[in-house]
Amino acid sequence: MKIPEILLVETVQRPGSLASVLSVIADEQLVIEHLQAQRRGQGRTLWEITVEIDESANPQFYSTIDALPNARFVDKSDRVLNRHRGGKIRMQPTLPVVTNGTAVLGLGDIGPLAGLPVMEGKASLFASLVGIMAVPSGVSTARCSTTTSTAPPWSRSRRC
């Protein structure tokens, strides 16, 4: 399946600079759908190059473009992200809020299902106060080692 991907490449304004970038893309057997100059100034041009990439494409060709003496690979993106930028799709960190229900707000051992509304409240506080998307979840085990191994390593509490 071929996916259109947008490459941002900056070239020096000299004859052959863009041709060398397009040659690298052609050597990878990629089809160029669209080519547009985004910005020109100070002897440089920023190009937006849309290519069709499939699973068999060499992911190292970005570094091949970057290694050219008159060009620099700046970034890549796709159409879906660009169309939804500032809209429905948001890129933000996600944090798990995990409980096993043994110590929820001083209520004692109430279990993971009963502790879930408290975790939902914590998740909404993370979202509204800090801007971090939090996902509440309950783990039905009393062992701290099992609870911490269920959560991702970066989210584990140091109290266990």
Descriptive overview:
The protein is of the alpha+beta class. The chain folds into two domains: 3-83, ACT domain (Alpha-Beta Plaits, 2-Layer Sandwich), CATH 3.30.70; 94-154, 3-Layer(aba) Sandwich (Rossmann fold), CATH 3.40.50. Helix content is 30%, strand content 32%. The chain has helices at 17-27, 61-66, 79-83, 112-130, 144-150; strands at 3-12, 31-41, 44-53, 71-78, 94-99, 133-138. It has a four-stranded antiparallel beta sheet. The protein has a two-stranded parallel ribbon with strand order 5-6. The radius of gyration is 24 Å and the shape is elongated. The mean pLDDT is 81.
Spatial strand arrangement across the major sheet = 2-3-1-4
State the CATH topology of the largest domain. Alpha-Beta Plaits
CATH homologous superfamily title of the largest domain: ACT domain
Strand content: 25-35%
Using the 3D structure, state the CATH architecture of the largest domain: 2-Layer Sandwich
Identify low-pLDDT runs.
Answer: none
Oligomer: single chain
Briefly note the structural class of the backbone: alpha+beta
Number of structurally distinct domains: 2
Number of strands: 6
The number of helices is 5
Shape: elongated
